Q: What sequence folds into this?
């Protein structure tokens, strides 16, 4: 299965100039936890996540006495003073191509500790978004759905008649048996 099979194509985006307050409203209204940040050509520049917005609210210094906070100096996180998406976003964005296997996408999400991957074409332009939730939904598919996908892929991608093979799917585990006449 490829990234393109699972990605969302109706993606809410922001530009670096978008006011952070407006972007926070976009996240809340759309019920999403992050969004790609794009330039005028729709190339991905970064990602704004809920964590980036929350960094605006926490300065990492001791709470309490205002004089002590003043003497400690500026906030630990530069995003505390952010007013725009460009000032708060995580950049550069970690992106993925639509033809990559979902197993690779899952590995990147886990290794990088991120929740979403903007999907880009060869020019770096946004064409979709893949989230951890998308991968979990794919993992949760039932056996008949998996069998139908395998049968379709055998027929249309590999030009193999599925009837020439024994295909069994039990609790998400696929077993293929048979002999093929060519590699």
A:
């Amino acid at each position: 299965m490829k990234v393109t099979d699972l990605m969302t194509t109706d993606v809410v985006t922001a530009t670096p100039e978008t006011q952070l307050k407006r972007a926070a409203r976009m996240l809340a209204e759309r019920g999403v936890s992050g969004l790609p940040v794009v330039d005028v050509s729709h190339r991905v520049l970064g990602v704004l996540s809920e964590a980036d917005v929350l960094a605006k609210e926490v300065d990492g210094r001791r709470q309490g006495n205002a004089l002590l906070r003043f003497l400690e100096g500026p906030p630990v996180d530069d995003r505390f003073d952010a007013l725009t998406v460009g000032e708060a976003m995580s950049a550069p964005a970690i992106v993925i191509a639509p033809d990559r296997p979902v197993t690779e996408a899952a590995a990147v999400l886990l290794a990088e500790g991120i929740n979403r991957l903007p999907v880009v074409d060869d020019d770096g332009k946004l064409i979709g978004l893949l989230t951890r939730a998308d991968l979990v939904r794919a993992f949760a598919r039932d056996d008949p759905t998996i069998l139908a996908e395998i049968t379709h892929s055998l027929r249309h991608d590999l030009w193999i008649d599925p009837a020439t093979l024994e295909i069994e799917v039990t609790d998400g585990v696929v077993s293929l048996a048979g002999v093929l006449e060519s590699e």
